[in-house]
Amino acid sequence: MAELGCYSPSFKKPSDVLRMRRKRARSEGPGGKASSPALSGVRPFSPGPLLTATGRGNGGVKRRNPFASIENTYSSPKKRALIQEDGRKSSAAGPDEKLREELPKTGASLREELLHTDRHKQQHTQVVVSLSEADGVFEEDLFDPQSCSAVLKSPEALRDSAPAEVCVEYPADWSLKTRLLFTSPQSFSWAEHLKAQEEAQGLSSHCRAQFNSIPAHIPEPRGCAELRCGFQQSLQYWQHPSLPWLSLFPRIGAERKFSGQCVPWAQDAVLQQSLMSDWCVSLTSLYSLLKARLCPYFYVCSYQLTVLFRAAGLSGSAGVTALLSPTTRGLRDAMKTDGIEFSLPLLEEKRKSRGQSSSQPADGEEMTSGAQLSEHSENEEEEEEDDDDDGGFSWLKEMGVQDKIKKPDAISIKLRKEHREVRLDRRPESVVLVEGSNTFTLLNFLMNCKSLVAGAGSQAGLPPTLLAPTAFRGATLQTLKARTVNVKTQVRAGYEDVCSLEVTGPIMPHCVHALTLLLKAAQRGQFTTSLYTHEPTAVLNIPISPSTHTEEHTKCVVQDLLSCGLQQSSVQQLAAPSILGKAALRHLQMRDCSYSWRT
Known about the structure:
There is one protein chain. By secondary structure, this protein is of the alpha+beta class. It folds into 3 domains: 14-159, no CATH class; 166-195 and 203-219 and 480-543 and 578-598, no CATH class; 236-355 and 407-479, no CATH class. 36% of the residues lie in helices and 16% in strands. The chain is built from 20 helices and 18 strands. The strands form 4 sheets. It has a 7-stranded antiparallel β-sheet with strand order 5-18-17-16-6-15-14, covered by helices on one side. Helix 19 crosses helix 20 (568-575). The longest helix has 23 residues, at 269-291. Residues 33-46, 48-59, 89-111, 113-165 and 362-391 have low confidence and may be disordered.
């Protein structure tokens, strides 16, 4: 290196420079000259006289507090005011700014040598410099030779710096939501106090399925009429039956909500029959719209299960599909009796995974001893269950006690066989998938199923709730409730304004997508969403077809569903196969117009 003309014999690594400064500061002690300019007006890590106080002798200096840090020495108001008088920043940024300024000032030659060495080596090296909370000195963590500026990072920041899953579009969530909470640094004042003309325009656009184009960048959202009309339009949905004094969603687990309410049909059989007749007409109308591709999907919310009907092409399906969850063994047996062919997707997925795991050793792959033991134990359990189901008691003969042990009767054997099916009841694994022409048979089954309507309790005689994004016969137009709240949240340096928008009601998938599109333009691509899921519907996100989805398939689906009443972007999102499985979206964040989400 000495032969090269660019070599500097006085070059020192940043770590060597910092080590020399550390030794110098420790040798001079707390009363030395080195610590006074950098931390003037600050006590030495423990209560006592200031470093620059006059009349402070060398004797009687308190020992250093091992639990103190540079940050908490600036916490009191007096110290903060003292720093502000010197023309520096607030206490939270004071130590960091001093340390940032001190390094380049004392190492001006170091900057030149680092840049000179970087040109010679033609590579980027990074050396870390972070503030240690234990002793208040620099440690090697991050140093950028390009800019020669120290970047201070705490251990918590280093741990939390893992990137989240970022995507241009988030996956479709077929579960019903009860509440959405949007938060953003930008105000949501544009979403409140809509004018009568804007509200009327939003309702008219929803009924006619007309969608106005919204600018990508809106400088003043409060004055954008298209944005406010689009917000009113995205809050609309259709429901049957509609009883103003009753909230008909959710229905599962809502007995306490219905108790004490006025239910005049509870003891009136004629009124119950009238309600059920109107409900059957509305359900038939919805299915006809679905078959004609004029309605993308709809929900049937009963007091014990939820049914999701989807048009052909949505979620990667080839025809009309229906998902029922949660189900019971009695309901599945009744569907078999009526000739409805269905499948249990989650159980079939488990069986396929077990089959693939058992076939892996045959393909030449090695298995660990633990995997072999677990698989062997599972096979033994299945064989034992099969033996019990077949009534095999050969082991009693081998022991010679077949006459002393009472064998189970036929009823016990039958109950043992039904144990597997019964333990699935009301669990996510009990979700049922019906496809193709069997959905029409399912429609007739639902209209004639007596167990679909409660026979006793607070929901007795009340038909299930029908929810759809488009109008149908006997439906009532409803509006989701929205309200804006501005709060102050405490941060390290003080308080920060956080604006929030809360939407409550039966929130369907298209509504979530429409709202995010509006907020992307109104909030300048910066917002966070908390989604509260109706838990029994989370399993409706399971995939129903192999992942052979292509762009041509999406274009065909969008073209077929042009008159379904949804935006093309929403149809494009709903046409993709579901990837969430049994989970549902819980958190959705947009930053710089890019989504990150988690379940």
